[in-house]
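request received
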Amino acid sequence: MATLHVLSHSPFSDSRLSSCLRLLGPADGLLLCGDAVYALQPGTAQRQALDLMPTAIGLFALDEDLCARALAAPTRIQVVDYPGFVELSCRFDKVNSWL
Amino acid sequence: MSKSLLIINRQSPWSGPSAREALDIALAGGAFDLPLGMLFLDDGVFQLAPAQQPSALQQKDLGANLQALPLFGVESLYASARSLQERGLEQQTLTLAAEVLEDAALIALIDRYDQVITL
Amino acid sequence: MKFAIALFAPPHAPSSRRALRFVQAALAGGHQIVRLFFYQDAVHNASSNVVSAQDELDIPAEWRELVRQQQLDGVVCIAAALRRGILNEQEAQRYQRSAGNLDAPWDLSGLGQLHEAAQTADRLICFGGP
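response:
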């Protein structure tokens, strides 16, 4: 049962991203929102860790959070709006938000 | 058939009401006889450390409530081997009989449940 | 698809607004929200006493309006609410407090409502943190 993991904490001040990456199943997805989109900051270890994720893992980011922070998503990342977030919640079997 | 729920508990025990409120979710579900599991991950494993004295902080004993989990039907208890090891905790000293799992087993565990709450 | 929504963060947290926008998008997409359950600091979203500056978002007001308009089932965890000073008239009287600050459309109830919603829904979606 594939899981969509949702992160919203900055990966520079918090361990959720690293814990989450270790617990991703082969068909899981990861949606970055809020400060978690800072993981896409170029030239960082966090960005590199995401770039190295297997292609079977879906990587997503919420557009408003990228836009607000002037961050560009690499092609590997699918940018979603709220209807897209809802669609992902339906597509995956369950949603695990790292509160 | 009832949906199974895994509660992933990442809260250190004495940093506010979060640890107790995570436990309360499990106890409430257990009372309804729902298939529930609880996984202690990251700082959540500190809830299982031995010889804690919450009275020093005028707090109620969270450990006593954790012991009640099996009585409430929450018998599937797990702890992350990595989280324990990173924090210098030994499995045999834990205050709760939790099954200690490596990352690969944790991935399979999360996969098995219908729903997950991580807090 | 039937969604159960659990919120854990206070109104000023970005995740509270995110939950609100998610619910609006789900409803607009023809999905059903079986229940909103406010737990931990999210109980403050149901307070009638939050005053936002005129040029700022008023998330509690938006939640209230959405629940009313869409006739959603909005449940606030009673134990979490009492602990944080969120009381309806009945609880204010019971504990001899000067005023309640939680009205319709919100209901105070127990954690069993979270489990019941999760059982009824196809998806449980939690929002919290920043």
